[in-house]
Amino acid sequence: MTHIPSTTITSDGPRPIPLIGMGTVTVTEGSDVVKAAVVEAIKAGYRHFDTASFYGTEIPVGEAVAEALRAGSVKSRAEVFITTKLWCNSTERHLVLPALKKSLKNLGLDYVDLYLIHWPLKINSDNIKIPVPKELVTTIDIKPVWEAMEECQNLGLTKSIGVSNFSSQKIEHILSFAKIPPAVNQVEMNPLWQQKELNEFCKQNHILLTAYSPLASAGNSWGNNSVIQCDVLQDIAKSKGKTTAQISLRWLYEQGVGFIVKSFNKERMKQNLDIFDWALTQEDLNKISQIPQRKLVYLLGFVVTEPNDVTAEIDSKL
């Protein structure tokens, strides 16, 4: 079993977060498949699992953790790090705590380790129907929402709080009034969308940047194969006897960020962890730094109609 390095996040005092997390978002697989994949991932060595109320996978993730505890794959709840997220239809002060309590009920847990605001958006509809018409989407009033997030942590329902898909400008605004600063900012990041400025900003403010879509969500309806098919990454992989995916994940690790990688295939789960006993050379890093940059996944386009208009409202740099 692979030992996954961790770093500390500080919104609840120094707290370890495994740098590799397993993603659980899927639109094709049922709950039984998700549960079985998480059980296998725990056996392989994964200890950080990323879900969200929007994903509809909180229940199978919780069931898998319970099964792993019964089987002795993990000895205590504290060995597993669970991240979930506040969906955009609950980004109002009075809705945050009930939303977290519903997520905890789905997970069958007393607390989560990390609770994130999923997007800096408010969707003015109770129904989760994708894509959301842009006229139902507005920016959120972040101050009361963040105060409610802080209340969730103070109540012990989450150990840490953070954000997802937030620009440095939006985080700076939170920092101007927060009693508890964000511990994590989860955004799209990979060698073709390197987020250098945002990563530097987060490091300066002791916020862990965590990458989703580290492989451009290849194999998902909203993703593509651009990272896997990148010539620069393929050449480096060939020279090292590694997969292109491993090169991308190792590059992320060397940037000092965490990342969420999703595969329900046992062998690829193991391959995605096999990135710690070798390193990229300076020449490799130089080549990767020169890859033309472009946003690949653009999940906002999956969530709302006419995403360019919405992006102009929330920040074009995400």
Automatic annotation (TrEMBL):
Gene Ontology MF annotations: oxidoreductase activity, acting on the CH-OH group of donors, NAD or NADP as acceptor
Ranges in coiled-coil conformation: none
Listed InterPro entries: AKR, AKR4A/B, Aldo/ket_reductase_CS, NAD(P)_OxRdtase_dom_sf, NADP_OxRdtase_dom
Domain NADP-dependent oxidoreductase: 20-291
UniProt keywords, alphabetically: Oxidoreductase
Active-site feature positions: 55 (proton donor)
Keyword Oxidoreductase annotated: yes
Site (Lowers pKa of active site Tyr): 85
One biological process term in Gene Ontology: secondary metabolite biosynthetic process
Binding-site residues for substrate, renumbered to this chain: 118
One family name in Pfam for this protein: Aldo_ket_red
PANTHER family: ALDO/KETO REDUCTASE (PTHR11732)
The protein, known as: NADP-dependent oxidoreductase domain-containing protein
Organism: Mikania micrantha (bitter vine)
Source organism phylogeny: Eukaryota, Viridiplantae, Streptophyta, Embryophyta, Tracheophyta
